[in-house]
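Re: How this chain folds, sequence and tokenised backbone to follow
Notation: Tokens come from a learned vocabulary of local backbone shapes, not from coordinates.
Start of record: The labelled sequence and token lines come straight after this line.
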Amino acid sequence: MVHSKSISGDKTTRAYGLAGCVGAENLALVKAAWNDDVEREVNAFPGPEHDDIIDSLSHGFNWLDENRQVLGGAYFTSTGKRI
């Protein structure tokens, strides 16, 4: 499914919710070849020249947050823990 949405605010502000989730250790990565790229970009933010991964993660996180009621009001970690 593809969703279109106008983006407002700066990248750092849009990433606040994601940063809180990461800081609380409520985000897990599926073990894959791209993990090092994700970790490198997350640890360098804000500031890396290329921040497409942060953009994607923050947009996805914010969409989930905005649609929490539609999705049953909860998020689940990869182990099934409700957050």
Notes: The chain has a mean pLDDT of 76. Residues 25 and 58 are 15 Å apart (CA to CA).
